[in-house]
Amino acid sequence: MSFIVDADNVFGIDNCDAMLGSAIENNPDINYIQGDMRSLPYKDNSFDLVVVYCVFMNCPEDYQKSISEIERICKGYILLNEIIALDGEPTQGRLPGDVFPDEKPYWVSYNKDEFLSAFKNSKLIKFKRLIYKEEDGKRGRGNYTIMKFKVEK
């Protein structure tokens, strides 16, 4: 993100030491903090754009509260990449153990309607599914979805 805007205006937050360390190592000019999305340490309407990439798939507890916090700090747009169940039925699985060695790792996908209903103060503008292909050309298991919201307060 810092290649698009001045790095002084780009902020990152993660609750996992390993992921935060990797982010700092790869993008040292960005302002990173360790924190919980359910209680973001920013004032209301602090950001024109909030980008959320594959967060809720790893942190399903109280995802509605996290969405509410994102809407609270954003005064413009939310770009979100998340796993939405292809058939409407949520699924779950395990992450590689080396990413979160001290935890019982997992990921979840969400029912589209249930997940979108958590956005109380935002209008969905764009919803696009990304279909990944395996090396042999067959369809992969990925069912990531890009969503764009306009915050309306």
Q: What descriptive keywords fit this protein?
A:
globular, alpha/beta, 153 residues, 2 domains, two-stranded parallel ribbon, 4-stranded mixed sheet, Rossmann fold
Strands, helices and their partners?
Elements: E1 11-14, H1 17-26, E2 31-34, E3 47-53, H2 63-73, E4 74-83, E5 92-93, E6 107-108, H3 112-116, E7 122-129, E8 144-151
Parallel strand pairs: 1-2, 3-4
Antiparallel strand pairs: 4-8, 5-6, 7-8
CATH fold type of the largest domain: Rossmann fold
**What is the arithmetic mean of pLDDT?**
80
Assign the CATH superfamily of the largest domain: Vaccinia Virus protein VP39
Assess the beta-strand content as a share of residues. Answer: 25-35%
Largest pleated sheet:
4 strands, mixed
Individual helix count:
3
Please characterize this protein's 3D structure.
- The chain has 153 residues and is of the alpha/beta class.
- It has helices at residues 17-26, 63-73, 112-116, and strands at 11-14, 31-34, 47-53, 74-83, 92-93, 107-108, 122-129, 144-151.
- The strands form three sheets. The chain has a four-stranded mixed sheet. Strands 1-2 form a two-stranded parallel sheet. It has a two-stranded antiparallel sheet with strand order 5-6.
- The mean pLDDT is 80.
